[in-house]
Amino acid sequence: MNTEDKQAKLDTIASKILDRSCGLDIAKSCLNPVPGDGDPDAQLLFVGEAPGAQEDKLGRPFVGASGKFLDEMLSTIGLRRDDVFVTNIVKFRPPDNRDPSKEEIDICLPYLLSQIKIIQPKLIIFLGRHSMNVFLPELKISEAHGKVYKRSGMVFLPLYHPAAALYNGGMRQTLIEDFSKIPKILKSLTTK
Ligand code: URA
Q: What distance in Å separates the CA atoms of residue 50 and residue 63, rounded to the nearest whole number?
């Protein structure tokens, strides 16, 4: 599929998310749905948990403090936000930043699966345990972070969530180190 066709298909999914027709309460209560955005041909797809207050305000993923940290880490491996695709499992802000419910995850998951199918990323990077556990339910983030997992034709790299790592020195260092492995992982996947 060429880039324009991919973008058109991603736009169709985004418009379904934006029309709030899924019936979830959070789809009605949020300020702005957050479909996710980035390069339709991205090799890297980042998946967070759900939009926070800033994301809800602007309708874009990872634009608050954790997004700034994500951008900093991307720049350490020579990438900008436009070079990757960033989204969340749940596309609407749960009130008071509570964890998304199972129903919210189940209803939103087909959007993400469609996005994955269109983008065909080489590597899917989970930001935090919540998104990891949707695809890899048996894993603990304290053990799985920075390791590559292959399942159902997809390749996953779980990382600590930037918001959790931001103010925790040890976790922050670990996240930065795990992040620095991405180019080598990507290279090993593209040369196969
Ligand atoms: N945290 C997330 O998991 N996703 C966002 O988009 C922002 C913060």
A: 12
